[in-house]
# Entry
Amino acid sequence: MLETKKKNGFASGIGFILAAAGSAVGLGNIWGFPYKTAKYGGAAFVLVYILCVLFIGSIALVAEIYLGKRAQANTVTAYKKVKKGFGWAGLLVCLIPVFIACYYSVLGGWTLRFTMNSFQSIPEAGNAVTMGSFTANSYEPVMYTIIFMALAALIIMGGIKGGIEKASKVLMPILFLIIVAIAIYSLTLGPGVEKGLEFYLVPKFENLTFDGVIAAMGQAFYSLSLGMGIMVAYGSYTSKEIKIGKSIAMISVFDTMVAILAGLAIFPAVGALAPELFAPDNSGSLGGVGLVYSVLPMIFGRMGDIGQFVSFFFFAMIVIAAVTSVISLVETGVQFVIQKFKAPRKIATLAVCGLCCLVSIPVAWSIGGEIGGGTWATFKVFGYDLLTFMDEMTNVVLMPLGAFCSCFAIGWLMDEKVTANPFKTLDNLKKDGLELHPVFGNIFAVMIKYVTPLLILVIEVAGLITNINKSVNFWFTIGFALLLAVISIVVYFIAFYKRDTGTNADELAIGVKTEEKVEANA
Ligand code: PHE
# Structure
């Protein structure tokens, strides 16, 4: 019995791929990608997006999975194993996802509410509960956030193999089937569908501005869950046999496919049932939260009776996408807490999820105040509602910084024997456990050292320069994000630099101990 417990990690390659894809496919695919595509020139944007995935995203994805796999440990130890003084990057990328989980779970809670609401719709007015009335309420959004978080916690408590892998293997195929079915339905809604397709995909290179290129890179990071330790954490639970090259190809293709399908599910339906939204002065409503929680319910309302079912499956699909993402966000922190503090998984999960729930309360009120005009309590930071503030901080600064750190760690900080000569890098990486197909591998060796970090830097700096005229509040937000990075550095050197920060083996030891105790008691 103890034998089967010996390995705490993904049981199979496909289990790992589905879990990583589960993390990647999330709200970003469903409302971020379609909207940005429509805004920045349709297929032209898709092309740039795919280039970003190929040249930046996939390289950083290999880097992060490999960092985890070679360390077989949490993010802090993983970066520490590259260079002791660089462990702070591991702490930073461990904090970012916990931070994101605090607002992601609020949106997850909304989605849960709208799934349940599907069968209460009233014609034309859309659903019985509107985004405005729901978000203005001071306790409902909080309650649903907590239920959503509890679902995630249950899965995480099951461990990697018994919880995260098992759930992903069941949920991801369901998600895919639902989105394909809805896209097909949407494409067959009759006249107007082609208007939607035109709005979404017809290439308009004149709309692909520099902002569009920056948006494509940001979207690629966000969508592939990069720059926030997640892929390092998941990678650490993979075994020697896993082929990183093949895995990242499947993860990226799956993630991109779902993103494109999401647009095919949404815009043809808008074209057929609410074409007035394509008028330039209305198209603002086709992005962000408004699209999912306000426009879609209205469109489902216009579908007649079948709309209730479409609504149910659509929102349930988003719940699946969001749950499999939030478990990866939380797991990154949970892994560190287990391994550093030798805490049992259940306690660590409760601690991290509990903290996220607490922080999510003011976040829910803050965005509720912004949207629904809730007056019970509203919070603003630098003029932003808390959700936008946290999202801006993580998207604009922290994720690119995290992704840069992972490329930099491998390209420049890893054992010089491995990276000194780019022409030999591939062989050396192979000795270090990273086996890639020679064609991709050689590209990887050069990209990881020079091109990808430079591209991230250039696009980031250029992006900030184009924002130079933005409000003072924007710059405060950037400053605050950098402060978080500084805090990680200080805390790391004070608390973790000299001390052991644990590995997956420690986690296993805790598990075995618990197991033995149970047996002894029995
Ligand atoms: N990749 C997810 C998405 O596309 C979001 C996510 C971000 C998940 C950060 C985990 C971490 O929505």
Q: What stands out?
A: The longest strand covers residues 380-381. The chain has one domain: 2-505.
